[in-house]
Amino acid sequence: MAVMIGDIARAGPGKRSLDTGQGCGIETDLAVARRVLRAEIAGLESLSAALDATFATAVNLCLAAHGRIIVTGIGKSGHVARKIAASLASTGTPAQFVHAGEASHGDLGMIAGEDAIMALSNSGETTEFADIIAYSRRFGIPLIAITSGARSTLASAADVVLLLPPAAEACPMGLAPTTSTTLMMALGDALAITLLERRGFSIADFRLFHPGGRLGRRLLRVADIMHIGDAMPLIALATPMSEAILVMTAKSFGCVGACDGQGRLVGIITDGDLRRHMADDLLNRRVSEILHPQPKTTGPGALAAEALGLMNRSAITSLFVLDDNRCPIGFLHMHDCLRAGIA
């Protein structure tokens, strides 16, 4: 039996059976969960209100780094640091996580003079930071601190301090990192997205870093999967229908596009058009007499998902891809989208 949010699942070393809530404290559990969420929301609101020009200074420092942003931490802060490094790297800011403890045992060699360091520690007194702080000061490597310890060792050594506002941990004992790590995570996201916008990071750039999975498929452009050159089913406007049908059959797309003397697409003939005009004289007629004018088209820079949506809405199976002069430069069939995993 699957357990979703709203269900109660209890398991322990004794492999206790799933409790469905009969006679148990569902309301108590929900109250705890809501208290945790309210505490973290309150912390995030305090963080948003506390942001000032120091944040912009940290952004400028990251932009000025010619190397990578080295994100470091230990414990729960280390896990958050890994995520921040991954978010930065995937949104156009080269970044790498370095474990604060491992840095003292050789990983300092991962940090170069053109890098910048972002160190996460709630207290700012993490002893494992001693060597990485000293290394950054010795070689003039910019250091950004994310901490709630305004007078801590880390804050005192840093070039820029992004100070977390006072916020109670959601843990009832005030010990387990909860609110503090949420604030660090959110601040890291804010830095990553601000840097993304400052760098002018585009959808095309995003796809370059996310080629795999559903996200990569959603960002495919029409130009990435369209047919080009001789593969396009094209004929001249004055072509007799006898030749047009031969081209339609050879290209196997169920349609053919007609171009004028300047190479501009002026219409399309589909299998349906052939059936509607079926008569003894069909083969002797000209394409210009049969074509459907103003067909649906798309551009090479359009997202393939958008092109598929246009085909679905229009109840058609293909689109010609036109340049700015309305000249065909490609052809897209619905099956091309489906083969690419776009649905």
List keywords for this structure.
343 residues; alpha/beta; Rossmann fold; CBS-domain; 2 domains; five-stranded parallel β-sheet; four-stranded mixed β-sheet; 43% helix; elongated
Portion of residues in helices?
40-55%
Average pLDDT: 88
Low-confidence stretches: 6-18
Q: Work out the radius of gyration.
A: 30 Å
Portion in strands: 15-25%
What's the order of the H and E elements?
HHEHEHEHEHEHHHHEHEEHHEEHEEH
Which class of the largest domain in CATH terms? Alpha Beta
How many separate domains make up the residues? 2
Class based on secondary structure composition and strand pairing = alpha/beta
Total strands: the figure is 12
- Shape category: elongated
Secondary-structure arrangement, i.e. CATH architecture of the largest domain: 3-Layer(aba) Sandwich
CATH topology of the largest domain: Rossmann fold
User: Total number of helical segments?
Assistant: 15
Please explain how this structure is put together.
The chain has two domains: 27-201, Rossmann fold, CATH 3.40.50; 222-339, CBS-domain, CATH 3.10.580.10. Strand 4 (143-147), helix 6 and strand 5 form a beta-alpha-beta unit. The protein has a five-stranded parallel beta sheet with strand order 2-1-3-4-5, with helices on both faces. The chain has a four-stranded mixed beta sheet with strand order 6-7-8-9. A three-stranded mixed beta sheet has the order 10-11-12. The longest helix has 25 residues, at 26-50. The radius of gyration is 30 Å and the shape is elongated. The chain has helices at 26-50, 53-64, 76-90, 100-103, 130-138, 153-157, 179-199, 203-209, 213-218, 222-225, 241-251, 271-276, 287-290, 304-314, 334-339; strands at residues 69-73, 95-99, 116-120, 143-147, 160-163, 234-236, 255-259, 265-270, 292-293, 297-298, 318-322, 328-333. 43% of the residues lie in helices and 15% in strands. The protein contains 15 helices and twelve strands. The chain has 343 residues and is α/β, with parallel strands linked by helices.
